[in-house]
UniProtKB/TrEMBL annotation:
Domain of life where this protein originates: Bacteria
The keyword Signal appears for this protein: yes
Gene3D superfamilies: Periplasmic binding protein-like II (3.40.190.10)
Keywords attached to this entry: Signal
Signal peptide from the UniProt entry: 1-33
Organism: Mesobaculum littorinae
Protein name as it appears in the record: TAXI family TRAP transporter solute-binding subunit
Length: 348
């Protein structure tokens, strides 16, 4: 497996923060050492990018001695490997991807060390990836998943977990196979959103919390239709195998949530996922404690002005976790009185 954007050297370092100002002061205060941490997330336009860039922003603003640097390239499958090898500090954890890594399956099938490396990963908190918005323009003639035949469809970035889930879901529900019955568009999140707005692809799929700022932007200029799963499709064993995967959830995109240019008059049934922020076991426990505390204390202040952020709640921080908590995060949750299942307690 080839990883994009190799990290040169360690992701953590120490630098002197600030410089003495020549403002007539006789003695300048000593600069405070600042710890740098490297975090990777999915590309702009994705729900993890919104949540995790906000995570970094909140922490950086509240902790003077910490700076989290965000990289928004590559896939979550890649980021998990890099964090496990100590090349990343924080990454987007996914229950389904972590299960595949533990099993050495799917995209990890040709990486013999994947299962062992999965033991180097720890959780900080979970959050909803959101619902899969299967989006098309109202005048496209596409009104159901069966109509995807012959169309240009963006499932997600190549090699990503979301891409695999959507390809499997469409095949399970309709029998349509990506790359055979419809064209699987090979783009990143940001480029795909732009291509859809330019009319170069027919269907754009994004797993995101509603209302998504990216899709809100699309709805400003043209009418949109969201496609979903029918009751009959949800009852299929092949579909239930996907909705019942680790971290899998079901939900509804309500009519009108994207304004007058959303043509759906009834709620659309679709699937979603629980993901989260993870950390490599190598990251210092005291640092993760301070970072976790700073985020949860600061994020509440932002939720009034960011509706999509209201789904990120501390009471759901342990939802669907299938890897142990980082010792620093565990300390914070115990401190505030949360009940911690034994399975989430790290051995170290």
């Amino acid at each position: 497996m080839t990883f994009l954007g190799r990290i040169a050297g360690a992701a953590r370092g120490t630098a002197l923060g600030g410089a003495a100002l020549a403002c007539g002061l006789a003695i300048a205060p000593a600069a405070q050492a600042q710890e740098f941490y490297r975090m990777a997330t999915l590309g702009p336009g994705s729900s993890p990018y919104l949540v995790m860039s906000t995570f970094a922003q909140v922490v950086n603003e509240r902790l003077d001695d910490v700076e989290i640097q965000v990289s928004a390239t590559g896939a979550a499958t890649q980021h998990a490997m890099e964090a496990a090898m100590g090349q990343l500090d924080f990454f987007m954890w996914s229950a389904s991807v972590h299960q595949l890594m533990q099993d050495g399956a799917a995209m990890y099938a040709n990486i013999p060390q994947a299962a062992e490396l999965s033991g180097n990963l720890r959780a900080v908190f979970a959050f909803p990836l959101g619902l899969y918005h299967i989006t098309t323009y109202a005048d496209s003639g596409i009104e159901s998943l069966d109509d995807l035949a012959g169309q240009d469809v963006f499932l997600g970035p190549p090699g990503g977990g979301a891409t695999t889930i959507m390809a499997n879901t469409i095949e399970a529900a309709t029998g349509l196979v990506a790359g055979e019955d419809y064209t699987q568009v090979q783009l990143g999140w940001d480029a795909a959103a732009q291509a859809f707005q330019d009319g170069r692809i027919d269907v754009y799929i994004n797993s995101t919390n509603a209302p998504s700022p990216v899709i809100q932007q699309m709805a400003l200029s043209r009418e949109l239709r969201f496609l979903g799963l029918s009751d009959e499709q949800l009852a299929m064993e092949s579909v239930q195998a996907i909705t019942g995967r680790p971290g899998g959830v079901l939900g509804r995109i309500e009519p009108g949530i994207y304004g007058e240019n959303q043509v759906n008059t009834e709620a659309v049934q679709t699937l979603g996922s629980i993901v989260g922020v993870g950390a490599g076991m190598h990251v210092d426990a005291d640092a993760v404690y301070e970072i976790t505390k700073a985020f949860w204390e600061g994020v509440a202040e932002m939720q009034d002005n960011a509706p999509w952020l209201r789904e990120v709640r501390r009471e759901n921080a342990l939802q669907a976790l299938n890897l142990p908590l980082h010792p620093g995060a565990l300390r914070y949750y115990e401190e505030i009185g949360m009940e911690i299942p034994d399975a989430l307690r790290p051995a170290e």
